[in-house]
Design a protein that fits this description.
The protein is mainly α. It has one domain. It has six helices and two strands. Helix 1 packs antiparallel against helix 2 (about 30-50), helix 1 packs across helix 3 (about 55-60) and helix 4 crosses helix 6 (about 125-135). It is globular. About 35% of the residues are buried.
Length: about 160
């Protein structure tokens, strides 16, 4: 098991906000290709272990002082898993759009919007919770447990950081 790492949750929240915004634009303007592009970006971010739109936070918002870092000791893997799973859901939506199943495709887009909103506004990451449950079931590759004092899927508390 790897030790906890400092994770900037402001970067994660920026990522979620950008995902929500782009997916809402894709729905409002009926740009199904944009939803697919967001899915590809999310998969790419998951593969490199960074938020897909973290560059916006690191390159613009943080340097200008518009957002402050919110570094918490946490596990990187559950966040990458959640982002990758969201990317797979959006790519599935893209294939549904191509096959003429727009209603189901937009339903999947709205599922990602809802789950990203839950994470952004409430602090509960469903994908992270699934990761931790798979760890508890001893599924190979799911090696991390939630930070001490944190229930599966919830954002770690600052007072637990020591």
């Amino acid at each position: 098991m790897n030790p906890l790492q400092p994770i900037d949750h402001a970067a994660l929240r920026t990522n979620q906000a950008v995902i929500i915004l782009l997916l809402l634009i894709s729905f409002i303007l009926n740009l199904s290709w944009l939803a697919g592009l967001v899915g590809l970006m999310m998969l790419g971010g998951a593969l490199i272990g960074k938020p897909a739109f973290g560059w916006l936070y690191a390159g613009l918002l943080k340097p200008r002082g518009w957002l402050k870092p919110d570094v918490l000791m946490d596990n990187r893997q559950p966040h990458a898993f959640a982002q990758g799973f969201g990317g797979v859901v959006l790519l599935s939506a893209g294939f549904l759009f191509l096959s003429g199943s727009s209603i189901v495709g937009w339903g999947l887009v709205w599922l990602v919007i809802a789950l990203a909103s839950l994470n952004l506004f409430v602090g509960f990451c469903v994908g992270c919770a699934v990761y931790y449950w798979l760890n508890r079931l001893k599924v190979p590759g799911f090696t991390q447990s939630p930070p001490p004092g944190t229930a599966a899927g919830w954002r770690p508390r600052r007072e637990e950081q020591g």
